[in-house]
Design brief:
The chain is α+β, with helices and mostly antiparallel strands and 118 residues long. It is built from three helices and seven strands, in the order E-E-H-H-E-H-E-E-E-E.
């Protein structure tokens, strides 16, 4: 059966019904390119999340919770508004970055709580 390679668009004779590529190298390149494109499309969020978690790991360093001013966090390179999920705390949903809960605490302050603290 004659088919077109998804990567190169060249025609080839498929040895299997579900074959989509003329060679294994084409298949590998096609899916690597696709994964790379996906990583680039989410990089602006991923980089900010990774930077935020590193900052929080450094600041809490074994503490259960800490209250910090938003400007202090931003001065360290923290990106306010980037979070990984919402977490319920005392009956309300709050933003969280992986294991850290971000709870508003007064004017321009955040209470950071380590949810996995032992």
């Amino acid at each position: 059966m004659k088919k077109k390679d998804l990567l190169t668009q060249e025609e080839f004779f498929a040895s299997r019904i579900n074959q989509k590529f003329a060679k294994a190298e084409n298949r590998i390149k096609f899916y690597n390119d696709k994964a790379n494109e996906f990583r680039h499309s989410i990089a602006y969020i991923s980089k900010a999340l990774h930077r935020n978690i590193k900052i929080l790991n450094d600041l809490l360093n074994g503490k259960k919770e800490l209250v910090l001013h938003k400007e202090f966090l931003q001065g360290r390179g923290f990106t306010i508004g980037i979070h990984s999920h919402l977490e319920m705390y005392q009956g309300k949903n709050h933003f969280a970055i992986y294991r850290y809960l971000l709870v508003p605490h007064g004017d321009d302050k955040l209470k950071i709580i380590d949810l996995k603290h032992d």
